[in-house]
Amino acid sequence: MAAGCCGVKKQKLSSSPPSGSGGGGGASSSSHCSGESQCRAGELGLGGAGTRLNGLGGLTGGGSGSGCTLSPPQGCGGGGGGISLSPPPSCGVGTLLSTPAAATSSSPSLSSVASSSSPGSRKMVVSAEMCCFCFDVLYCHLYGYQQPRTPRFTNEPYPLFVTWKIGRDKRLRGCIGTFSAMNLHSGLREYTLTSALKDSRFPPMTRDELPRLFCSVSLLTNFEDVCDYLDWEVGVHGIRIEFINEKGSKRTATYLPEVAKEQGWDHIQTIDSLLRKGGYKAPITNEFRKTIKLTRYRSEKMTLSYAEYLAHRQHHHFQNGIGHPLPPYNHYS
Q1: CB of 37 within 8 A of CB of 163?
Q2: pLDDT at site 326
Q3: Under 8 Å CB-to-CB from 38, ≥6 apart: which residues?
């Protein structure tokens, strides 16, 4: 199931906020983001199984929003009519997805940004090398080189998102991921191209954009069903909601952990934005919010700029089986 963090045009699960609180979305297998913190979900067939999602907020269709949608062939819009409005059946908090223990370290020479919403002091699994691999995959695709060989970082399965931003203001350029655990080698390879080329809110990326790109890899962990729709922490948890819309159809939408904090939203604002992102158009009442089924989760995130990618590759050329020339570095214009 793929999902996006931005607005959605198709039925998919969304993980990021729409600019404003509008934007439709639903549950589907793949998801992507468009805009600073936007992603949308879409059923994009670039190989590999699993649910794709978006974890950043954004507008449906446009490239200026900030949101994400989630979709496996479910779509951000969800489906299935005739479902009665009732409170979520499961109220106990339970772990839905366990996190593999494997971990890798990132290069100490990079000024990349790493963050984790997971508790404890365990080593982070996400690494700068994962972002470098995503840049390798995109670069090879755009220039027609043979795809890079198997990377050295762990191949444990994780739900994941690949997010692209561009320019000094880091505008969202593409974001798609999956809530289904995928082996990282194939999952990152697939969603690198899906988020860069298949986010319907944006045109496919071009060679000219490479020098201005930022790549983020998010690994999702610690999924828990909660009874209270307010039982999650802004800036710590990502949330995925399921609800029945005014037509009786089930819809889903998601925001990655950073979205609410970046937008300056509280719990209610985040929930309401996510409902709008999921396509709910009726007035939102507190009674309706109580019928939402909410799953909270955490994430590990690493961000790398193109310049950092080049610096890393200049010191570790061929380390990961890269057989193509290093791309030329271009400063921001």
Answers
A1: no
A2: 61
A3: 4, 5, 6, 7, 16, 17, 18, 19, 54, 56, 57, 58, 59, 65, 66, 67, 68, 172, 175, 201
Q: Which residues of the chain have pLDDT under 50?
A: 6-29, 32-51, 57-111, 318, 320, 328-333
Give 106's contacts (C-beta < 8 A, 6+ positions apart). Answer: 112, 114, 127, 128, 129, 302
- For 18-39, b where at least 16 C-beta lie within 10 A, e where not — what string? bbebbbbbbbbbbbbbbbbbbb
User: Nearest 10 degrees: CA dihedral of 40, 23, 302, 226?
Assistant: -90
pTM score, whole prediction: 0.69
Would you state the pLDDT for residue 106? 37
Nearest Cα neighbor of 201 from 233, 172, 158, 170 is 172
Query: How is 13-74 classified by DSSP, letter by letter?
Result: EEEEPPSTT-------S--EEESTT-EE-----SS--S-EE--SB--SS-SS--EEEEESSS
What is the model's pLDDT at position 325?
60
Residues in the chain: 333
Q: For each of the domains in the chain, give its residue range(s) and CATH number, in order of start.
A: 128-220+300-316 (3.30.700.20), 230-291 (no CATH)
Distance CA 42, CA 71 (A): 6
Residue 331: what pLDDT?
Answer: 32
Q: Locate 199 and state its tokens.
A: 């986010």
Helix (H) or strand (E) holding 315: helix 306-315
Residue 327 sits at φ, ψ, to 5 deg, of -65, 150
Question: Contact 34/201 with Cβ under 8 angstroms?
Answer: yes
